[in-house]
Design brief:
The chain has 3 helices and no strands. It is mainly α. The longest helix has about 55 residues, at about 10-65. The chain is elongated.
């Protein structure tokens, strides 16, 4: 063996340090994802609130005007009409509120 080659113990120690670094990076990314999900949830809730309040205001105005006017279909209904390219996939709905671990589990299930 050459003098520069590592022993198994040295290589193991090096890999363990690398593993600790990767775990720290993973923890950091999970915290970042968790924070981003919380921010998105806040934005969604505030936009829902503003949409609902606008709808209530418009609803009161529509009662006074002609009620036979067609309303716009929700975005989900418009998106559901897109082509399926000949196959159907059942994707479970994500139900994990703001927990990033639940999201990662769901994501791996979907993949």
């Amino acid at each position: 063996m050459a003098a520069t080659s590592q022993t198994f113990e040295e290589r193991f120690e090096q890999l363990m340090k690398l593993n600790v670094e990767k775990d720290a990076q993973l923890d950091y990314l999970i915290r970042q994802l968790d924070q981003a999900m919380r921010n998105n949830q806040k934005e969604i809730q505030s936009s829902r609130f503003s949409i609902e309040s606008k709808a209530l205001e418009e609803g009161a105005e529509e009662e006074d005007s002609d009620s036979s006017v067609k309303k716009k279909r929700p975005i989900r209904a418009r998106c559901a009409k897109q082509t399926s390219m000949g196959f159907k996939v059942e994707i479970p709905e994500f139900e994990g509120q703001l927990n990033s671990d639940d999201f990662l589990d769901w994501l791996s299930t979907v993949e």
